[in-house]
Amino acid sequence: MHRIALIAAVALTLPAVASRAEPYWPEKARVYFIAPANGAVVSGKVEVKFGLSGVGVAPAGTDKPNVGHHHLLIDVETPRGDELMAPLPAGAQVKHFGGGQTETLLDLPPGRHKLQLILGDANHVPHDPPLVSDVIEIEVK
């Protein structure tokens, strides 16, 4: 009985905890493709332009609220779980734009390709929750 009373007394002294944490991003924040359009058929090098609204772009290393920098995922699945806890791996399928760039020119082989954008923090780690674009598909002739 004393144990229950002690637990109740401790619970009453603890500050109230909100049932839901505040999101990292403003409600209207989004990342998207300006170009190419989903379903586009292109030839040669592909001009890709990144869109961002509700938050800002800043170079890697900038540790401020409501900013990040782009990462372009090419023909890979959206990172999930533990993959979101570490810096995104740079390579042929994950392009880093740590200088704050908002566009690039891709040299993709002919065929269908899936593209997606994900914002990274100062250290290339996706935010919690991650800010990702819809996946678009393009065809390179």
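[next item in queue]
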Amino acid sequence: MPILIARSISKSYTDTQKRVEVLKGVDFEVAQGESVAIVGPSGAGKSTLLHVLGGLDTPDQGQVILAGADVYKMNDVDRSRIRSREVGFVFQFYHLFPELTALENVFFPMMVVTGGMRQMNDVRIRAKVALEQVGLSGRLDHKPNQLSGGEQQRVAIARAMINEPRILLCDEPTGNLDSKTGEAIIETLMALHQGEERTIIIVTHDEAIAKRCSRTVYIKDGVLE
């Protein structure tokens, strides 16, 4: 049973009164523990597809089955719950809070869904473990402006990992980094994938990154090739 199934996904937007079809009947499946690269040019629909797969952007038509659950038949609360439990997101831009430390940036999203000091202490411990996993045990108290771009992306990866999701969805995770730093980030992601058999989907335009994955799919003009 695949951990993620997309069937007949269509998505369009209205841009300056013109309707633009971004995804056109996409079918896509990913097995548990698989690593998949989605490759295509700018504007091909890569990021939109990733957001639909992760429950962030409702399709016009189609179905997404995540860990056996029909994501877009759920109400917003249930969809948010399964998304936070099963999926971790890593984006090109780190989306860190500048006033918070690395540790606080990792556990802050959990403050919304936990309550009480005991629970928060557990979350802080999990955040420390996640930062240690990405090699930042010595940067817990550093704020984003005290970290390099690669270190900031590692914080973002740790944040994505705090709930121990079964799937990591990565949208151009090295797009804002130089080649050497980007390679280190891919090494980190692949280690998380291989060490715990975590499913990983990476949107990229970089064929070198795609070759690191077990499978590559190509998207052009909203259609998988």
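[queue empty]
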